[in-house]
Amino acid sequence: MTHYGICYSKEGPARFISHLDMVRTFERAIRRAGLPVAFSQGFNPHPKFSFGCPLPVGIPGREEYMEIELVSELSPAEIEEKLNLALPGGIAVLRSFRMVDNAPAIMALIDSARYKVQIDFQPEIDFGRIASCISHFLSLPGVSVVRKSKDGKEKYCDIRKGIFRLELESLQENSAVLEMVIKTGSTGNIRPDEVVSAFTGHCGLPVAEYGVYISREALYGPGGSSLESVLQKKEE
Amino acid sequence: MQRTLEKILPHVQKPARYTGGEWNAVVKEWHDIDVKIAFAFPDVYEVGMSHLGLQILYHVVNTRGDALMERVFAPWVDMEKVLRKGGIPLFSLESRRPLGDFDIIAFTLQYEMTFTNLLNMLDLAGLPLRSSRRNRNHPLVIAGGPCAFNPEPLADFADAFIIGEGEEIIGEIIDLYKVSKGKSRLDLLKAMAGIRGVYVPSLYHIQYFSDGSVSSLAVEPGAPEKVVKRVVSDFDGAPFPQKPVVPYMGVVHDRIMLEVLRGCTRGCRFCQAGVIYRPVREKTPETLVRQAEDMVGSTGHDEISLTSLSTADYTRIKPLVTELLNRLEHKGVGISLPSLRVDAFSVDLAKEVQRVRRSSLTFAPEAGTQRMRDVINKGVTEENLLDAVSASFQAGWHAVKLYFMIGLPGERDEDLDGIAHLAVKVLQAGLKCNVSKGRLKVTVSASSYVPKAHTAFQWEPQDSLGELKRKQSYLKEKLKKERKISFNWHDPETSFIEAVLARGDRRLVPVVERAWKLGARFDGWSELFNYDLWHQAFRENGMDPAEYAYRRFSYEDVLPWDHIETGVDKKYLIREHKKAMQGTATPDCRAGRCPGCGLCPALEIKPELPGGDHNFDPLRNLL
């Protein structure tokens, strides 16, 4: 059995594929590609692969991670080539690598994510206002958002501690691009749209209808470390 | 439009319904193509993508160099709102072009309760609803599928209806369209009426008596008196999608659909499919194995459904299943059967194929007593059913579903008692087979019977709404005592409107339009069906839906759909109706004796049973 890490992008029409459907999409792509994937034991065997961190539906991911277990050795380049020929439009394998022995699950390793957020304003606003909104927002001791639990009850959560960075990257006409790094993963997850609506709502910014586009640019391990530096086996 | 869509899509439910870009979707260079067709499915993506006909026609058209076919589905209500608000015309998934840019919009009519969606899609495309208001600058609007066999309630909306199987006729329409580009819409329609299987309703002038039968039918020169359905000439060699589109999102039938045979001659008297898909034609096992392997490779699906109206009837089903399993099981590909015939053989088959997934098994005895089953010619006995469920319980299934209809012609309360009685017997069979008490479950589903055109019961009225409701609660009461039996039923109001449309005529055109205008959409979806809207639409047009649903025609009447010809002789249907009233059965023609439905001589065809040698008698051997 060999474990491989795969870095891929999910963009275009594929950004609307839900997490559950991503599982199905990869199952089919793996079968079309003819990869010698390992199967779980049991009554209903399923191919062994898992995703690092589900993307919210509609948000593209530039560098997402998954791991896959094969029953025979293949070169990472071969995996990349075979999968790319079998994946539907919008999903592309960027690179693949052998994983170190006893590597932690990618899912458990992921700690934060960097997002790019484009916000269209109506009417236009100036640079100074956004900049001061950001510093004001970040100076808040707590940022409370409402979440619905599975039984439909509403619950307040403080997400301030999970916002590691929020910066204005550019402002052109009525459109601002922000960059943010927020807590992500199995140990406390913050949704990017939660942060955006808390920010724009708190500062009373005039967001245009359908005026927010979010993309996930990168995933990080603890302390902002690169996932691949932890997971990738050094090729001899 | 692209940019606006990108903005909007994240804000609607299940955006993958509208994105396109799926595996095996075909996007052609628009400007290089002579004839551009949009296949329009008047229901949501998940339903439409489960439809084999779409995949077949998509393959047939896109194989041609001079034509393309793209897909469009009915947008769900949230998407409709967004489209209307943003002034965005309904668009195709492949090239995201407005429907108005296409040469032909081809609807499929699988169910009467999608009729308002057809109107809504034309409107969302910015097209005039009525054929008479469209000209050669608009797309040609055609519609096929089972409901095209009584297309009259939609007569003024579509330019032409396609009667019967589409694989060959679609090519003839494309060829004609290519040479008719400069012609007026009327000239094009007149030329189309010359294609066998095309019904151009505007060339037929129909009047009705007050009882609903046809008083006069005037046909314009050049159009046939009777439009005869199309049947593909060589079913085994018929084009089949080697590369079906694989949806991103979960759809209703998320698997490879391998059509093993077409048609069914068991002759259930309520069944319209049994008439319109005649004759029975099987593919050869070699063809099927080849198609299955091709599709596994091209889709990556892990399941193949052997589809047909009655798959266990395939002459060499066992060898076929064995061969498919031998070739595909090691690839992790399973086989499923869409429905089971009510006998132990079918359960054996299910046991053999469904080695991986375990769920409940479904059987359709349709009626509760032998008397009633003889009336509808459902050749199933109580013994067959008990054998079948016992075999299922012994094979390890612990839940079975039983399908029945209520409101069948001549039904009495004792027939309802029979349903309850059968359900209890099935439950007892489960206990006898030592199914654990905690897991044993019998689900009884009762749908309200809807009389359909071209069947032996086409003359019969539907049970009144009040009577259907009474029967439902009667049955519910009967089954209440048994905690392991759960009872499902369908909304009888939906079946009532379905009955009105199924045996409707052209006078319903303004009613359908008004219902749509009032907001009727997705009428087949119980959460969206609004009976009051339909009621109001009838009232405003001074019409009574009950007259349609409860009408009893006489054998002498010219019926509103009599000019559409299935190939099955009306005299045969009358004979079948009479036999039904006497409770006499008619055997399947596969058993060797021709009951004289008239189809083979009328269409100059024969059943094709290459799946087995011709001396093989499937029915006698299997039962």
From TrEMBL, chain A:
A Pfam family matched in the record: DUF2344
InterPro entries found in the cross-reference section: DUF2344 (IPR018768)
Residue span(s) of domain DUF2344: 5-192
Name of the protein this chain belongs to: DUF2344 domain-containing protein
Organism of origin: Desulfocucumis palustris
